[in-house]
Amino acid sequence: MSLHGSTYEPKSGFGKWMDERLPIGRLMHTQFVDFPTPRNLNYLWTFGGILTFFLMAQIVTGIVLAMHYQPSAAAAFNSIEDIRRDVNYGWLMRDLHAVGASMFFLAAYIHIFRGLYYGSYKSPREVLWIIGVLIFVVMMATAFMGYSLPWGQMSFWAVTVITNLFSSLDSIINGLGTTIVQWLWGGYAVSGTTLNRFYSLHYLLPFVIAGLVGLHLWALHIVGQNSPTGLDVKTKSDAVPMHPYATSKDAVGMFAFLILFAWFVFFLPDYLGHPDNFIPANPLVTPPHIVPEWYFLPYYAILRAIPNKLFGVIAMFSSIAVLLFVPWLDRSRVRSAKYRPLYKWFFWLFAFTCVALGYLGSKPPEATYVFWARIFTIYYFAYFLIVMPLVGWLEKPKKLPGSITEAVLGKDAAQAAQVAAE
Amino acid sequence: MAAGPCGRPLGGFSYLEILEAEALVATDAEEPDRRDFLILAGGAFAAVGGALSLWPFIDQMNPDAGTQALASIEVDISPVKEGQAITVLWRGKPVFIRHRTPKEIEEAKAVDVTTLRDEYARNEDLPADALATDVNRTKAGHENWIIMIGICTHLGCIPKGQALGDKKGDYDGWFCPCHGSHYDTAGRIRKGPAPRNLEVPVYEYLSDTKLKIG
After folding, report:
1. How far, rounded to the nearest angstrom, does the alpha carbon of residue B114 sit from its chain's CA centroid?
2. Mean pLDDT, residues B102-131 taken together
3. Domain B15-29+70-213 has what CATH class?
4. Which of A163, A306, A309 to mutate: most B Cβ within 10 Å?
């Protein structure tokens, strides 16, 4: 993918000396300055950069919090309150980290839906997509363990309910589930031992994510970016160098998103949390209505929609695992939903379904809510297993533009631009 | 003339030529030779050794000796009046102790076991195939007491029904607010997503008012 050729020219003597020994400057220049970027990217393409920023921000604020946090059942809850009240700028670090987790998920969901809408998972981007799904899974594990650390009532009971999901394996092989759950807990119930190991893993997993992000970027820079038309970069005039074109657009998107982030951090730091988490963990009392953080609500609704324990757990895990097969489930030859008149409707219904499941997940498990959760759970899976294979085959896509340049400039200007670029 | 590692002549061949010739013999051989055997055996040994060395890293997460040692507790049940219940902590788990009323015992006894979702007693003192009759869920001579682990068999919440004002569910026993499981007065699952009856731990009566759990 070097349509423009490298413009890297080390200027200093040290730069030249280094370029012959470890050409890291050349690598960065080729991949992040000269890299050909489709000229028609919209603001939805700025979320990759936003996510990278949030990963780094979470690691930095997390390392700071780890300097003050105490991972024991007796001290954890109070140490968080100390961080918020006594530690210099501790309130800022805690709020950046806690709100940052929510913003990280918001950005990840926009990024995933963008990929689904524009068909960014289709050949040759299958591996890129699968690595993305793996990042998402590790992100969920990291967020879940991080949520346990304040050791409030919601922390404690979230750990209890989620680790107990594995006990459903008892109905396949008797005792298997119990063995796994006790291994996860390090005891016969959730305890300080569990908190300690979750803290250790919560520190580890972000670095696993960073490694996966490296692979995700590598795969992206091999196959090139998808674009709103779903067309690949074919000629020089289809692309612009990443810097300053894509980077400045990324900066605008990032600042807009950071305004939202800052608004929550400074004005509503606890809005996205749950008040019960300000009650210290009590293994003898379950809160009357336990709910996960907002970003897990749709999966929680799917879990509760199914009256059988084992199948509920299987459905919940499948709702994520099905994403791995999307590149092969979608049979359409057209990538972008912009040119898929029928599929577009199913896509927006799916987006609505995810929001609806999120709402239902936040409600108590009563008859009406469970009924609707079942309806939406059925559509959630039908979208992947029925709509994706069938609609691609049934629908007649709209006519695609000849190239990215043509989509932006129109046919005549595109020819002129192509001639000029050659 | 090239010389070998110890300075001996190599019969007119360069060292590289000999290495290449050997490589050809090894890869083209039809019959597995001694080297193939050594590679396979060595590889298998390293794989098994590598897998075994993982075990300490896995097993360290299991309940430790200190946790396992907290095996039994003694409870004085004399202050618990008929219709009341207490919850004690054993091995980090809540244990429900309820002093049942004659009406509650009646209700528990009237149930046909074969109609239950989980027809087994889940009593650690009895064989695994003992049926979930009220007799098998309690101890002979002490039918007015029921002792169970107070953890919902669905996803581990603690059911309501111990305190007097609690919602006790459709069967007068316990009700789990998390996902809506109803247990009857013998702690058997009757309605909702939980798959099993509440578990009965190992316990014995040291006297009429003293209980040893574990």
Report:
1. 26
2. 89
3. mainly beta
4. A309
Q: A362: distance to nearest CA of chain B, Å?
A: 12
Q: Is the pLDDT of residue B22 over 70?
A: no
Contacts of A331 (CB under 8 A, 6+ apart): A388, A389, A390, A392, A393
Q: How many residues does chain A have?
A: 422
Residues of A in contact with B178 (CB under 8 A): 157, 161, 286, 290, 365
pLDDT value, residue A419: 73
pLDDT greater than 70 at residue B19: no
CA angle (A356, A138, B61) in 5-degree steps: 120
* pTM for the model: 0.87
Confidence (pLDDT) at A62 = 97
Going through B30-111 in order, the beta strands assigned E by DSSP cover 73-76, 85-90, 93-99
Instruction: State the ipTM, two decimals.
Output: 0.79
What confidence category does residue A378 fall into, taking pLDDT thresholds of 50, 70 and 90? very high
Kindly report the CA angle at A339 between A336 and A342, in degrees rounded to 5? Answer: 105
Q: What is the pLDDT of residue B15?
A: 67
Residue B99 designated active-site: no
* Distance separating alpha carbons of residues A78 and A151, to the nearest angstrom: 9
Average pLDDT, stretch B70-97?
89
Among the CATH numbers 1.20.810.10, 3.40.50.2000, 2.115.10.20, 3.40.30.10, which is that of A43-292? 1.20.810.10
Chain A residue numbers with beta carbons less than 8 Å from the beta carbon of B64 are 186, 193
Q: Which of A94, A36, A96 is nearest to A261 (CA)?
A: A96
pLDDT cut 70: percent of chain A above it: 98
CB of B68 closer than 8 Å to CB of B49: no
The residue ranges of every structural domain in chain B are: 15-29+70-213, 35-65
Amino acid letter for position A154? M
Of the candidates A124, A115, A142, A122, which has an alpha carbon nearest to the alpha carbon of residue A54? A142
